[in-house]
Design a protein that fits this description.
The chain has 521 residues and is mostly helical. It contains 17 helices and 2 strands. α1 packs parallel to α5, α4 crosses α14 and α9 packs parallel to α14. The longest helix is centred in the first third of the chain and has 35 residues. The protein is globular and about 75 Å long. The two termini are 21 Å apart.
Length: 521
Amino acid sequence: MSASTVHRAGPREWGGLAVLSLPTVLLGLDVTVLYVALPSLAEDLRPSGAEALWIMDAYGFLIAGFLITMGTLGDRIGRRKLLMIGAAAFGAVSVVAAYSDSTELLIAARAALGIAGATLMPSTLALISNMFADPRQRSLAIGVWATSFALGMALGPVVGGAMLSQFWWGSAFLLAVPVAIVLLVAAPMLIPEYRAPRSGRFDLLSVVLSLIAILPVIYAVKRFAKDGPDAPTIVAALIGLLFAAVFVRRQGRLTSPLLDVRLFRDRTFSAALSVLLVGLIGVGGSLLLITQQLQLVEGLPPIEAGLWMGPPALMMFVAAIGAPLVARRVPPGIVVAATLALSTVGYALLTQVDATGGIALIVIGFGLVYLGLGAIAALGTDLVVGAAPPEKAGSASAMSETVQELGLALGVAILGSLATAVYRGRVGDAIPAGTPADAAEAAGDSLAGAAALGERMPVGWLDQAEEAATSGLNTAMLVAAVGTLVLSVLSAVVLRHIGVIGGDEPESEEAAPGEPAGAKV
């Protein structure tokens, strides 16, 4: 691309990036804030165990299911338009969730929030690819965007705890309202519209097939984490895989597919997606286990546990901003491999955590883990989006987000199940004789169940349960360390063909005053 056609972003585009980061922070915050609100919510609405799970999971299910649909829909009707529609819907449904007076209404609101959230994630990322045409600026902008979600997740327990100390549980949902208002006011002024030319007919059958392919797989992964490979888990996985094959076959035959499967022929696109998927598996599992360790073993309240997660979040921010800058001089494959090697060291440190007090080791180890996450989130996402033509940026962004959602879910399922198996193996024979059956079952199932029993168990027994849970954490982190080390080596190999960021691009001229970069309508 010649210098005359590539413009460097100016103040307007960087201001637009700040606006696009707001809903991304909000989506990350919405993932974790409910963990803090759930106890008071449960006390008020009295959901059953299954209903409590659906309150937590409906949001993630629907986000994952609709990402591909919404990414392609934005390409067709306009990415900024879809972003604004989604922001308005997210704000409005958040009010419904905040004032829900029944479990059923809250579950429905959480599902609607998931659909609205699916419009926000690919739209923000695709718009960044339009606004920042210069490869170096785009890479840095995606680094900022990538840290926004992690920032929201880190702030969730802190903000949620502060809100709940002053207000009722529904106040946690109302945080979305001011964010939606700011976005609706600022987006038309700072963010250019983009709609893919000649986008063709929107295939509703493909939408249905994509949902039947993705939702059963996500359900199977989450159920596996809780119940193991039982019959419903296997059936759901098989249904999802069957319809995934049907969906891919249909996309290959359509002239205007919902997902252009030809993108996977690009070696950079496929390799970057693979790194994102595998890398997020370790992060998803470790995030769950570390959060439990801080609260159930170290005994920290949610707000304090959230504060201790602040330094690792800062490490991710450093990596996500720094990795694109380093990749201007060092090939991205080497940068990703090096930071993943540091993550391996972090996982190794987490294998040494014990139940007698290891907060400092947790913070240092998890901080190194987040270094790798920052690098692959920024550079991996940039490579995926950059490999797609501009008119397919929404679809590529949706694939990136879908793969990351799946990676996080797989991490919880695989590493969480491994840690649980170790816990149950060590605790099962240690439960004192004469313990009531219901108490023995709860204590043998999880540390949370054991902690909830309180004085019903003999003195000192909870210490054994905490040691068993810590042993499960250590084992899971050992597996994550080995997997991340292998991924580090593979990253250097599969991404070796990619040159430094912007290395093949001549210096581009500045954008004219008031002229946004990227295609527009």
